[in-house]
Design brief:
The chain is mainly alpha-helical. It contains 15 helices and 2 strands. The chain has a single domain, classed as Orthogonal Bundle (Farnesyl Diphosphate Synthase), CATH 1.10.600.10. It has a two-stranded antiparallel sheet with strand order 1-2. It is globular and about 45 Å long.
């Protein structure tokens, strides 16, 4: 088995090709919109959600050629959310993945349309490729991504986040927000990848538990990095949570306790995989990567 760094690099390169192929060419009308879509999606990002989908597919024996399209759909939803989150009406950020945000590089109206178009393209991918053994499973995959993206998932979490600026939150309230804002799409990535193979109900429960823990851990680490890392390291504006008086795991718990919580969530994620019979090596390594990353 190749080492984790080589596997991750190979998967990232695969996803870059898949995403480049599924996006409309910049030469197609409307050219400016298509150019902005490609600008938003390509040449940047860790691709954590596609990596999780591909790793979950290994657990259920799914062919990577199937998983890659489900993984691309999740990544398109993720990027759309970043484009919209960066808008002046939301987080008002000028830097993303080490380059100007879409509304800065193009304009606000184009950024809105980029998000809309990427969301539509994500579901087009789920509908236009054979991803699962039967139509019912593939329809269930569409439902998973739709629910994870909407008011009971990512969009709802963002709404709670915006309403929480300057407000004191209890730990359970902060967790509820991030289960939706960050965790829902991470859980969807794991389940979509797994659905491309043979997924039992018991395995789905274990994978969902793993994904819930990793989703929360991802946000805890993000909060720590926002407080401690530099803008150059992150590729986005550092310290913006504190500047906007947003509730975070660091502001609520302190940095030391937040690090402890991240380690606890990693242990819980690893434990959730113990009952699975398929290969869980990559999911375990991804849990470690998410906790130990510096960006």
């Amino acid at each position: 088995m190749t080492d984790f760094a080589a596997w991750m690099q190979a998967c990232q390169a695969r996803m870059e090709r898949v995403l480049a192929d599924c996006l409309p060419a910049a030469t197609l009308a409307p050219q400016r919109l298509h150019e902005a879509m490609r600008y938003a999606v390509l040449d940047g990002g860790k691709r954590v959600r596609p990596l999780l989908a591909l790793a979950a597919g290994e657990v259920t024996g799914a062919a990577a050629e199937r998983v890659q399209h489900a993984a691309a759909a999740v990544e398109l939803i993720h990027v759309y959310s970043l484009v919209h989150d960066d808008l002046p009406a939301m987080d008002d950020d000028a830097l993303r993945r080490g380059k100007p945000t879409v509304h800065v590089e193009f304009d606000e109206a184009t950024a809105l349309l980029v998000g809309d178009a990427l969301q539509s393209l994500a579901f087009e991918l789920l509908a236009s490729h054979k991803l699962a053994a039967d139509a019912a499973t593939q329809l269930a995959m569409v439902h998973v991504l739709a629910q994870a993206s909407g008011s009971r998932g990512m969009a709802g979490g963002q709404a709670i986040d915006l309403a929480s600026v300057g407000q004191p939150l209890e730990l359970t309230e902060l967790e509820f927000m991030h289960i939706h804002k960050t965790g829902a799409l991470i859980r969807a990535a794991v389940l979509l990848g797994a659905h491309c193979g043979i997924l039992t109900e018991a395995a789905a429960t274990s994978l969902d538990r793993y994904a819930k823990c990793i989703g929360l851990a991802f946000q805890v680490v993000d909060d720590i990095l926002d407080a401690e890392a530099s803008t150059a390291t992150l590729g986005k504006t550092a310290g913006k949570d504190a500047a906007r008086n947003k509730p975070t795991y660091v502001s609520l718990l302190g940095a030391a306790r937040a690090r402890e919580l991240a380690q606890e969530l990693r242990a819980d994620a690893h434990a959730a995989l113990d009952t699975l019979s398929g290969s869980t090596t990559r999911l375990r390594q991804l849990a470690d990567f998410i906790i130990e990353r510096s960006y």
